[in-house]
């Protein structure tokens, strides 16, 4: 390019869903939330909690975009975060250096951030565990990054293969992270409750009747739609 870009481009104002709506999904399994969106919404399966014992969270996406091996935008996002936000960072899936460690995690926790989700690497895993803030990453490496930019905060990103808008709802647990587009939030809330109830009935039926196959699978195996060759 002919001239250097700004170190940071920031959009501070975007709509966040009311905390009362997020509360209706608090504690929901990520699998139930994905089912409520027809089996979609989960980030790349390599993005997992640094500490599985500190993995459950829900919050509003504060998006940021960094270059590979740079975390200037993440630091800016932490400084701009509102209580209840989740820092979601697109880091080009870069795995040679870490963009988040225990110091960034502690600052984020001090700001009321609910979690940090990065499409890249973390470091200082022992310190992150001690901070107690859910941090999700592609893995751990001691290598450190730079803080030079350019970066963006508060704009649409793609992280972990999923398009994410600032203000979308982010939910995490031991299985991974699911993004709920803000426009779908009301429908997902309604469907998750129905899915919870339906799954509880299925599990109770399987347990009480010692089933080894779902009834519809058992019926299929008896039908003329299956051909046995032995």
Overview of this protein structure:
- The structure is a single chain.
- The chain is of the alpha/beta class.
- It has a single domain (8-191), classed as 3-Layer(bba) Sandwich (Glucose Oxidase, domain 1).
- It is built from 7 helices and 14 strands.
- Strands 1, 2, 3, 4, 6, 8, 10, 13 and 14 form a 9-stranded mixed β-sheet that branches.
- A hairpin with a 2-residue loop joins strand 13 and strand 14 (176-180).
- Helix 4 packs parallel to helix 5.
- It starts with 7 loop residues before the first strand and ends in an 8-residue tail after the last helix.
- The relative contact order is 0.21.
- The mean pLDDT is 93.
Strand content: 15-25%
Number of strands: 14
Architecture (CATH level 2) name: 3-Layer(bba) Sandwich
CATH level-4 homologous superfamily: Ribonuclease E inhibitor RraA/RraA-like
Please report the distance between the alpha carbons of the first and last residues.
Answer: 67 Å
Overall mean confidence score, pLDDT: 93
Task: Give the C-alpha Rg.
Answer: 20 Å
Q: Report on the biggest sheet.
A: 9 strands, mixed
Task: State the helix count.
Answer: 7
Count of distinct structural domains: 1
Looking at CATH, which topology would you report?
Glucose Oxidase, domain 1
Classified by CATH, the class is: Alpha Beta
Low-confidence stretches: none
The helix fraction, in percent, is 25-40%
From the helix content, strand content and strand pairing, which structural class follows? alpha/beta
**What's the SSE pattern?**
EHHEEHEEHEEHEEEEEEEHH
Q: What general outline do the C-alpha atoms trace?
A: elongated
